[in-house]
Amino acid sequence: MVSAHIASIIGREDSLRQVIAAITSQVDKTYVSLNGYQVEPDWLHTIRNVECELLDNSLGDAARYLHFGEDEGYSFFCDDDLIYSPNYCRYMIHKYNQHKGCLITLHGKIYGRPIISSHRGIIKNYRCLGTVKGDHEVETGGTGVMLINTKDMKINIEDFLRPNMADIWVAKFAHEQNVKIMVIEHNANIVHYLPQATRIWRTRSREDIVYETNILNSFLK
Question: InterPro entries of this UniProt entry (predicted)?
Answer without folding.
Answer: Nucleotide-diphossugar_trans
